[in-house]
Amino acid sequence: MDTLVFDGHNDVLSRLWGGMVDPVAEFAGTNGHVNVPNCAKGGMKAGFFAIYSPMNRAVFDFANFDPAIFDMPMPPMLDEGVALTSAIGQAAIARKLHDAGQIEIVTDAPSLARTFIADPIACILHLEGADCIGPDLLALDALYALGLRSLGIVWSRPTIFGDGVPFGLGRDGDTGPGLTDDGKRLVACCKELGIVVDTSHLTMKGFWDVAEAGVPLVATHSNACAVLNTTRNLTDDQLRLIGETGGIAGLNFGTIFLTVEAWKTGKAPLDACIKHLAHMVEIAGEDHVAIGSDFDGAPLPDGMNSAADLPKLVQAMTDAGFGQTLIAKITHENWLAHLGRHFDNKT
Predict the structure, then answer these.
(1) For the chain, how far is it from start to end, CA to CA, in angstroms?
(2) Are 160 and 68 in contact (CB under 8 A)?
């Protein structure tokens, strides 16, 4: 039986919104990294579908990817109203895909378990950056009603809740302050509602603030600083605490999070993913490492052109001697187990 995959992060909703296309028809086709045929071919049965608010409504062109665009100052705070427009639009696209039977927006453990072994693709709706939420947190309640069950406090820019890290090489994520008082209220509200709190893109001080809230630490799409020291990757202390709190660190396929060379060329070999996975497993533990591809949001390593190529990563893990038990944990069992516990433990 082919290995099934639960992916901890993709940006297909922002791709569909940015392209201003018929989302159902587009998702049924072959454009982009994540779509119905690619997921079927690659064994991708579930994932976190991110709602991300860009500065401008457009699709990122990976063919013209220039690593230099990441070596820039962090962008300013995004206007709440602008962010809310794109967030609601992307949530509506998710609902259209759900109604068309292409995905199922899942909000509890039984529906996740059922959908994962059947059809359609199981979708955990995720907010990548709480730019669209005001201090009254009312937008959070609205998004929760639409199915949101995971939230990243920031993308790599500031919000009223905390600071994101700029994209940078040769330094870790200790780049700014931690959570604001509003940020701590947001985390507490997520804990009460049963929303996963994602620390990807968050400063190191913010990471420790989330830890103090007593939630399992999750970084849906972040790699290991010990392999490549960048602001978006995790130190060993962070990886260790993710394991100790019963959380998950998801491997990001984005090339600039994999190798130094990618900061010049935009390219990285697939075996760089294996190096990060091996270190993450060593430090966080084999029950706390998974996949968070960043499909449709980042340039991919050589040979990985879309979700259809996920079996290549599985083969690379096999060739590296990971073993079928560990591979199954990384590809899907750890995310399923974590979310099962999370949904069951909702306060």
Answers:
(1) 37
(2) no
Is pLDDT of 280 > 50?
A: yes
User: Which CATH superfamily is 5-344 part of?
Assistant: Metal-dependent hydrolases (3.20.20.140)
Helical H segments across 156-261, by residue range: 181-193, 204-212, 236-244
pLDDT digits (tens, 9 = 90+) for 157-190: 999 999 999 999 999 999 999 999 999 999 999 9
CB atoms under 10 Å from CB of 153, counted, come to 31
pLDDT for the residue numbered 347: 45
The pLDDT value given to residue 309? 98
Name the token pair of 296. Answer: 């449709």
Structure tokens at 232: 């978006």
Query: 236: helix, coil or strand?
Result: helix
Output phi, psi for 220, to 5 deg.
Answer: -65, -30
Q: Looking up tokens 């620390």, which residue turns up?
A: 199
Q: Measured between alpha carbons, how far is residue 137 from residues 44, 80, 131, 141, 147 in Å?
A: 33, 12, 11, 7, 16
- Token digits of residue 214: 């007593």
**How many angstroms separate the CA atoms of 209 and 204, rounded?**
9
